[in-house]
Amino acid sequence: MTAIRYELIKTCKQTGARLGRVHTPHGSFETPVFMPVGTLATVKTMSPEELVEMGAGIILSNTYHLWLRPGQEIVEEAGGLHKFMNWDRAILTDSGGFQVFSLSEFRKIEEEGVHFRNHLNGDKLFLSPEKAMEIQNSLGSDIMMAFDECPPYPATYEYMQKSVERTSRWAERCLQAHKRPKDQGLFGIVQGGEYEELRKQSAKDLVSLDFPGYAVGGLSVGEPKDIMNRVLEFTTPLLPANKPRYLMGVGSPDSLIDGAIRGIDMFDCVLPTRIARNGTLMTSEGRLVVKNAKFARDFGPIDEHCDCYTCRNYSRAYIRHLIRCDETFGIRLTTYHNLYFLLKLMEQVRQAIREDRLGDFREEFFERYGFNKPNAKNF
C-alpha cells in the first residue's frame, strides 16, 4: 500500500482543471492547494495553530537547511519533523537539490552526486540521491522529493538533455534508496526546460518508475510566464491522471490560477512570506506596498474584502508604522494576511471548479487584480 493516494473529485467542464483530494499518513487535503513554506521547520513568524486557523492542510520544509541545522539526527531523535515542530498535518520536504544549485557558488556535478560548499560556513559537502533519501527518511515527511539536477534558465538543448538523463538515473537511485515507502510517498520531478521533446522524455522515464506523484520542476526560474504556461500545457497531459501533479516554486496569484487551469494540483513558494517582510501585500484589488507614504494616515484595513485576523483588527497606518520600525509584530501581521489571502484564493479556485466556472473566475480576478492592464505590476 502506498503512503499517498490521489482522489479525483471533479474536472471543470470550462477549463479541465482538477478538483481532488490527496490522502497522506497525516490527514488529507483538497487540491488545487497552496503549501506555505517552512524552511527551517517553521513558517517564518507563524505558529502551527495560526496555520491551522487559516486553513493550511500541508506545509513544505527544506531538506538542505534542516540537514545543516539542527541536523537530521536531532529531528529523528525528536520523533520526526511533525513532533519536532508540533504539526499534525501533512508535510512535504524538497530534496535539497534546488538549494545546492542555487545557494552554492562552488559546486561540481558528478554522476554520484554534487560536491558543493555549505553556504553558512564554507565547509565542503556532498549530496547524492541516496543521501537525500536518507535525510528525508529521517525527517519523516509525508511526501518526499527525488533528488534532481536543477538546470539554469536559459540552458542549451544539449546541456538540458544531459541534465534530463542524469535526473532520470538519479530518480531510479532514489526509489532504490527510499526505506519507508509505506509511510512516505516519493514524488519524481520532470525536467527538460522549455524543450517539449525533453519534457516528453523526462516524463516517460519517470512515469515508467511509477512514483505516487509527480512534480514539474525547472520552472519559475526566470523564464517569462508565457513560456511557463506553454511548458505546462504540453507537460501535465504526460503525467498520470490518477496521481497528484506539483508545480514547484510558484506562488503569485495569477500563476496559481493559470497552473490550476493547466492541470496542476499542488504549489509552493516563499513569495507570500518573503514579500510580507518588506511590507508588500496581496489584496483583492492588486499589490499594495504598505510602507508607501500615502498610507501614513490610512486607518482602513489592508483589504476591505478580507476577513483575516490582520484585516479585522489593524489599519494600514498602524502596519506601515510597524514595518518601517522593523517591529516583528508588523511582519507577523503582513505574513498572516498574505498566507491567508493565498489559501482563500485556492478555496475560491476549488469552488469555481465545482461550479464549472474557473475560466470566468480567472477573467474576473485578473480584471479586478489588474493583471489585464498593460505594464501590470506583479510580484
From TrEMBL:
Pathway: tRNA modification; tRNA-queuosine biosynthesis. Its cofactor is Zn(2+). GO terms for cellular component: cytosol. Keywords: Glycosyltransferase, Metal-binding, Queuosine biosynthesis, Transferase, tRNA processing, Zinc. Residues 249-255, 273-277 are annotated as: RNA binding. It holds the Pfam family TGT. Homodimer. Within each dimer, one monomer is responsible for RNA recognition and catalysis, while the other monomer binds to the replacement base PreQ1. Catalyzes the base-exchange of a guanine (G) residue with the queuine precursor 7-aminomethyl-7-deazaguanine (PreQ1) at position 34 (anticodon wobble position) in tRNAs with GU(N) anticodons (tRNA-Asp, -Asn, -His and -Tyr). Catalysis occurs through a double-displacement mechanism. The nucleophile active site attacks the C1' of nucleotide 34 to detach the guanine base from the RNA, forming a covalent enzyme-RNA intermediate. The proton acceptor active site deprotonates the incoming PreQ1, allowing a nucleophilic attack on the C1' of the ribose to form the product. This is Queuine tRNA-ribosyltransferase. It comes from Cytobacillus solani. The gene is tgt.
